UniProtKB/TrEMBL annotation:
Domain Response regulatory: 1-65
Protein name: histidine kinase
Keyword Protease carried by entry: no
PANTHER family from the UniProt entry: HYBRID SIGNAL TRANSDUCTION HISTIDINE KINASE C (PTHR43547:SF2), TWO-COMPONENT HISTIDINE KINASE (PTHR43547)
Length: 304
């Protein structure tokens, strides 16, 4: 090279923030251990000695491009984790204060017979929705740090389903079809966490199905071994090739448009639902081929 050698180019590329992450394969006629160590020490990702085959060169380039992509995605994922942790903690306190003040104003206006009380009820539901989102973000942060806690108590799984369905129905202004047993379904589990699971499954079904189409929540005890919670909608379903990824963190299926409710999503709901269910020692999944039904299976040891 007329104005330096390959090592100078490597140093320059690594010193520039715009080219620092580009994979570098240094090609040279110089062989031997010292030349290889010198190139790698300067910042090259690989060192290839002439002569070489085209197949080997292409294979090495593909490998380093894939490694660079994996590093980039890993860094982006870590940044998202940091953001989720900071944002959720910072939002929780003002949301709690806002909710309490809205409740007080709503009670005072209702006592005076003011029609504004109904408007505040709608605001209260919006705050509840924001609170659920913040709680989901906090839970995801706890999962990634290995600190998700489960506090089990004796509770009724049917009541958990009814409560989650009522909340989602009020927020979305959609009537949900409930197919639940008339008698209690006693379990020993974390009531709040299971409520998150059911709410996230319902929220997904509502978001990706037309407002005039039914969303059905079903609870069944199958034999003496497990109970099954199912959420079924009449949306377009999930492509078969996306099924292995729908429970991945931050994953969102491409080309599936939101048909109802908020268009904002972080790709965390199903990841969180699966983690909570598995933390209880159970299993969750989606049925193929249409994948319009999500389910969570509860083992018999939950039975009270």
């Amino acid at each position: 090279m007329p104005h330096g050698n390959g090592l100078d180019v490597v140093h320059a590329l690594r010193a520039d923030p715009t080219t620092r992450e580009i994979p570098i394969v240094l090609i040279s006629p110089r062989g031997g251990e010292d030349a290889t160590i010198g190139a790698l020490g300067a910042g090259a990702d690989d060192y290839l000695v002439k002569p070489f085959s085209g197949r080997e060169f292409r294979a090495r380039v593909r490998t380093h491009l894939e490694l660079a992509r994996a590093r980039r995605e890993g860094a982006e994922s870590r940044l998202k984790d940091v953001f989720l942790g900071l944002a959720s903690h910072e939002l929780r306190t003002p949301l709690t204060g806002l909710k309490l003040n809205v409740q007080l104003c709503q009670r005072e206006l209702a006592a005076q017979g003011s029609p504004l009380a109904a408007r505040l009820a709608g605001l209260h539901r919006s705050i509840d929705r924001m609170t659920r989102l913040v709680n989901d973000m906090l839970s995801v942060s706890a999962i990634t740090e290995g600190k998700l806690t489960i506090h089990t108590t004796r509770c009724d799984l049917g009541q958990i389903c009814r409560h989650a369905a009522n909340e989602l129905s009020q927020v979305s202004h959609r009537a949900l079809v409930l197919d639940l047993p008339d008698t209690p379904v006693p379990v020993v589990a974390d009531e709040e966490r299971l409520g998150q699971v059911v709410a996230n499954l319902l929220s997904n079904a509502i978001k990706y199905s037309a407002p005039d189409r039914p969303v059905t929540l079903t609870l069944r005890a199958e034999g003496h071994e497990e109970g099954v919670v199912r959420v079924h909608d009449a949306g377009p379903g999930i492509p078969v090739d996306a099924l292995p990824h729908i429970f991945d963190r931050f994953y969102r299926v491409l080309n599936i448009g939101v048909q109802s409710g908020s268009y904002v999503g972080l790709g965390l709901g199903l990841f969180l639902a699966k983690a909570i269910v598995e933390r209880h020692g159970a299993a969750s999944g989606s049925r193929a081929p249409s994948a319009r039904a999500a389910r969570s299976r509860l083992p018999s040891r939950w039975a009270a």
